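job 3f2a | input accepted
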Amino acid sequence: MNLKPVLTILICLVGAALVGYFVAGHYAIMTLIGLAPSAFPAGDVAQSIVESILPPIGVTVAGVVVIVAVILLIGIVTFFALRSSVRAQGKVSEESRRSFLTGTVAGAAGAVGAAAVGGGAMLGRSFFGIGNEGRGWADPATKIFDPNVVKTHPEWKQEWRGSRVQEYGRLGRTDFKISDIVMGTGPLQGEEGERVVKLAIERGVNYLDTAPDYSGAGSENIIGRSLKGLRDEIFLTTKFCTPKGHLPHDASVAEYKETLEQSLKRLQTDHVEMIHVHSCDEIDRLMSENMHEAFDRLKQEGKVKYLGFSSHTPNLVEVANEAIDSGRFDVMMLAYHHGIWPKINDVIHRARTEQDMGVVAMKTLKGAKHRGLENYAEHADSYAQAALKWVHDNKDISCAIISMFKMQHVDEYLYASGKQMTPTDVAVLNEYDRQIAGNYCSPHCGACLDSCPEGVPIADVLRHRMYFEDYGAEKIAMNLYADLDVNASACAGCAAPCLGSCPVGISIQERTTGAHELLRFA
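job 3f2a | predicted structure (522 res):
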């Protein structure tokens, strides 16, 4: 066997894995965060080219273009390197014609393999969190952004009609008296969107959250039209981003300022009460010197009063703790719903007690691997109402934000305002959790880990099982499981001291032993 081509392909595959992980994986994370085209190499150019070919899509595609380019480059380099190596071997053996064909075929096969390795490494870092303690985008994508989450009850009940805000609280050190349920505006569309905004305000909602990248700036335009004659009644918030995505941490002061200037034009106002660093997953962007300088200048100019940040990303806890320690932020807006990871309660309590920050709970309707409450609907008024009341039970929470984009939402959601949890609400949430019990391992939890005498990384085992069963990523799951220093083989004969340690009631031993049977190589 000729060793040179073999050595060449091994070097190419290792290189593909490294480039895929460190380069493509980096840009994949930036894309998932939703950064603007300017955050990527030649991003503005790539965005313009794509938009000249395709119909306007209102989102950043520059990141995708860069990722594809990196993966293609991996394949091209591998193709030429391997083809050249095989041809060189062919010259020695004087079989040049055959070596030419063989080299081309080998190069093509190697290119496909290297591209696949690079793509797998990219997914491993960005989606599955390899190298980041498992904090990838798989958990937020399925457990926070799940499209199957129940948002609207199938029946618009008569007793909900005319519901109004019944309770107001304090938004931390801003001292603003805020409605306990406030309005997210991401999905707003057209004239119905304007009617929903006006109705919510009429019913007592006094905080609107928007962003330039909500509906490609459509949300800000709708709010601008809707607030004519009503602006003084509303605490209005927007984000440091463009219609195509969030500004990167190294954006200039001028760029940060310009994003708000453009938002003010769309909102038809001369100021907003607050601006957020949006969907923040990294300390660099949270603490960007240029962003903070831009905010200070805008505040001095009277165009904004308060600074906040939002996070529903893999590094939420780390980002939130840094924001608290900095003392720079007046409000935090975090993903928070029943069954979410336990550490977040400590973060919220710190924010309120140490910095008197306002805390806005978002993503209040829990997403998971379920298909809703259709079979339980006769026992419940509304899952959304129960979920909102659960949020209000935490007195460190200033308000719950929820997207309202249908007229029914105003009645349905505000019916929960000022109300306490009832036995029926508890039953609804318990049933909701029962439907997903046994496979909802809350991200960033780790409450069970100290209970295992064998040192089994329980969260990793269950996450790999999820990749296998729910994402169809069987090979990736099995390879990840094989790489664990300690696997779940020890669970079968164990006395299971882990039982009862899971705060959401997962039967750990049953799930880990089942995972071992699924994931181990025969």
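job 3f2a | The first helix runs from residue 3 to 33.
job 3f2a | closed
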